[in-house]
Amino acid sequence: MATFLYKVGRLAFRRRHYVALLWIALLTLAGVGAASAPAAGASSFSVPGTEAQKAFDLLEQRFPGMSADGATARVVFKAPAGEKLDSGANKATVEKTVKDLGDGSEVVSVADPFKGKAVSKDGTIAYASVKYKVSGMELKDASKDALKETAQQARASGLTVEVGGDALTATPETGSTEIIGIAIAAVVLVITFGSLLAAGFPLLTALIGVGIGVSTITALANALDLGTTTSTLAMMIGLAVGIDYALFIVSRYRAELAEGREREEAAGRAVGTAGSAVVFAGLTVVIALVGLAVVNIPMLTKMGVAAAGTVAIAVLIALTMIPALLGYAGKKIKPTGQKSKILGGGRAKSAEKSARPNMGTRWASFVVRRPLAVLLLGVIGLGAAAIPAASLELGLPDDGSQPTSTTQRRAYDLLSEGFGPGFNGPLMVVVDAKGSKTPKADVTTVTDKIKALKDVTTVTPATFNKDGDTATITVVPDSKPSSVTTEDLVHGIRDAGAQVKSDTDSSVLVTGTTAMNIDVSQKLNDALVPYLILVVGLAFLLLIVVFRSILVPLKAALGFLLSVMAALGAVVAVFQWGWLAGLMGVEETGPVMSMMPIFMVGVVFGLAMDYEVFLVTRMREAHVHGEKPSQAIVTGFRHSARVVTAAAVIMIAVFSGFISSSESMIKMIGFGLAIAVFFDAFVVRMAIVPAVLALLGKRAWWLPKWLNRILPNVDVEGEGLRKLDSKDSDPDEDRELVRA
Fold first, then answer.
1. Which of 86, 104, 358, 514 sits between 20 and 30 A of 653, alpha carbons compared?
2. Which pLDDT tens digit goes with each residue over 342-360?
3. Tens digits of per-residue pLDDT, 241-275?
4. Where are the alpha helices (DSSP H) in 548-663?
């Protein structure tokens, strides 16, 4: 592979005009496609195989036009102090608001609180329920704006009016955080390269790659039902790996220049060596993202595949566009150790300063001398950080986790005050009595069994469909939606339903937003182990091919699991236990978002393997070229530690920007990914990895002879390039490459 990529690098360097035009054409084509494509809303959400989804599907069949999964809004009213809502002026305001709420084209129904008994016992709090035709993620902005405007008009009368429910679901604005992340990345790149031009290349190619990927997703969004969140994930991951991959190749190019090679030869060797690491690092990210299909949630699968496509583009653009840009830059890109004049280059260095080993060399030498102490300190530290993960509770955020400044949170609190905490998460029980001879009797039995359960506040009378073979029952728990008590109640109702089914011909299903959240959390939890086995297993096999070793890939996988567990422990400590909650801006603690573990595994695994492949490949290269294992570790750090550190700092800065988001979910993802990258890059890759390799010595690179014979030789370390001489290179090799 190294030889093939070497030819690709030289070809791109030599034919840079064609390469640049090709990528510009692709960017233009994708941009035109995105601009001309019909606008797409948020992706439809379904969770095949869950009981809540089965109930939704059944309601669509038996209650046509009900829009079982449609968005809901609760407009909550509170009378001024000393007044009640049924007084003349207050009642008139509520009734006018209810009338105005029903004018929207997507509105199915609006329930008058005075007619529907939706007024608290003391008469001070009431709510109007608004039902929409489509889900909250598909609701048009015009409908959301009309809802907000109607509530604002009602406030003018002196009432307290807040809006809750999923109708106001919105994708958080993250543009400012992305700009901050890119700005920090630019600063880190300038410090790393000592050159504005060299620092600009990774940013430019990453933005081009993300532009092509996101524009393509936008162009196909309507046809493939991709939704707005898909492009957000693709942008975040594509930007991250795009900067990393280009950073690795530009850094290697400068190192090759420092060894005295001509620029075209240096570009070829940079792509042949660092480019090989980029290819395999990219494959691990693609495996992790495509592997999300294991969860069997269509929206998550689409997001993973789309993001994987953006990663593939980032790999291709790093292998071709970077050497082309290096060709344009010419002598403006300095060898490693030299800075541009604007950043202080050209000043003579003292012999003592030039001979001084860099920070990476000094750190690696220390680890090689004290490997056991460093290993124990790293493992014990991460183990201590992982302890809170044993108390991990999973759930999905609701309005109760919103900041108190939001109308959703204030509506949530008003409903809890007037009707009890469980009122914010009612359960819908669906009784399918189509095969029963006594449907009404069966429904009565179900109702009685639910009333007999503890933690139940209210059970409404059953509502039958036109055929009289299906009924819905609303159950209000006495605990908040995200609590363990409510989850236990859902399981209790399902257990009672199983008993009813064994005694009669009717089946019982529990659904609603709360039940759906519980089912999604369980589905994600059940998929975590299979996902880990698939992703880590495939990557383990891939790394065996890359490093031609058993113990190095095993060490990489175990180190990753340790860093992820430590990161999950930190997430639990902050967002579930409340440690440093004030510093992080966490206003409400509660269960950790259910997709957090599997999301962290997928994203962090890909990024962690980037650092593993790039760092250890340099060590492997030095070892193959004759250095002793301990010296190879120091050599690897001398050439790679600075680049890996820069890449990790960039990622941490990008992810940390999301901690300031007002959305608890985004805040949690930002913190979790930032702390995971910190643990993995600086504790696992920079400390545990060299310590383990130092302890193993030559055994680290052991591979059974029979396995060595059957494994393909991908030559990531560039052994084949030693046979090439830039002075005797074939002038027609670019044509040979095209024919190949």
1. 358
2. 445 544 444 444 456 777 7
3. 888 888 888 888 888 888 888 888 888 888 888 88
4. 551-571, 581-584, 596-624, 629-656
Report residue 555 as tokens: 């060490």
Beta-carbon contacts of 45 under 8 Å, excluding residues fewer than 6 positions away, are 69, 135, 137, 299
Q: Which of 468, 624, 484, 462 is nearest to 549 (CA)?
A: 624
Query: Dihedral, CA atoms, 420, 423, 427, 428, nearest 10 degrees?
Result: 130
The candidate with the shortest Cα–Cα distance to 214, out of 311, 349, 288, is 311
**CA dist., res. 548 & res. 713, Å (int):** 9
Question: What is d(CA 247, CA 640) in angstroms, rounded to the nearest whole number?
Answer: 11
Count the neighbouring beta carbons within 10 Å of the beta carbon of residue 391: 12
Residue pair 394/677 in contact by the 8 Å Cβ criterion: no
Residue 131 in 3-state DSSP? strand
- SS3 (DSSP) at 357: coil
Q: To the nearest whole percent, how much of the chain has pLDDT over 70?
A: 88
* Cα–Cα–Cα angle for 39, 44, 50, rounded to 5 degrees: 170
Q: Reduced to 3 states, what is the DSSP secondary structure of residue 356?
A: coil
> Amino acid identity of 61?
Q
Distance CA 602, CA 535 (A): 8
d(CA 115, CA 153): 22
> For residues 191 and 186, what is the distance between their CA atoms, to the nearest angstrom?
9
Within 10 angstroms of residue 725's Cβ, the number of other Cβ atoms is 8
SS3 125: strand
Answer for the pair 161, 410: CB distance below 8 angstroms, yes or no. Answer: no
Taking CA 253 as the corner, what is the angle to CA 249 and CA 254, rounded to the nearest 5 degrees? 120
Q: Are the beta carbons of 428 and 56 closer than 8 angstroms? A: no
3-state secondary structure of 468: coil
Q: Are 619 and 635 in contact (CB under 8 A)?
A: yes
Rg (alpha carbons) of the chain, rounded to whole number: 30
Handedness of CA 24, 28, 31, 37 (dihedral sign): negative
Q: How is residue 573 written in tokens? A: 């400590």
List the structure tokens of 595. 């997709």
Q: What gap in Å lies between CA 469 and CA 151, rounded to an integer?
A: 39
Residues 140/143/147/150 CA torsion (nearest 10 deg): 150
User: Is the pLDDT reported for residue 66 higher than 80?
Assistant: no
Closest CA relative to residue 246, chosen from 296, 194, 200: 200
**183-187, 336-340, 343-347: least confident range:** 343-347
Amino acid at 528: L
DSSP 335: P
Alpha carbons 459 and 448: distance in angstroms, whole number: 9
- Output the average pLDDT for the chain: 81
* pLDDT at position 707 over 50: yes
Residue type, 113: P
CA 268 to chain centre: 34
Structure token digits, residue 404: 């108190």
Q: What is the pLDDT of residue 39?
A: 60
Angstrom distance (rounded) from CA 356 to CA 9: 33
Q: What is the pLDDT of residue 137?
A: 65
Q: Where do the H-state alpha helices sit in 67-168? A: 88-101, 141-155
Is residue 24 pLDDT above 90, yes or no?
Answer: yes
Tokens 């800065």 locate to: 653
Which residues neighbour 248 within 8 Å (Cβ) at sequence distance 6 or greater?
A: 274, 277, 278, 318, 614, 643, 647
Q: 632 Cβ partners below 8 Å, 6+ apart?
A: 619, 620, 622, 623
Least confident of 67-76, 88-97, 312-321: 67-76
Amino acid at 529: V
Q: Which residues contact 378 (CB under 8 A, 6 or more apart)?
A: 683, 684, 687, 688, 691
Angle between helices 175-193 and 629-656 in degrees, nearest 10:
150
Nearest to 597 by CA among 668, 656, 660: 668
Tokens 């059974």 belong to residue = 704
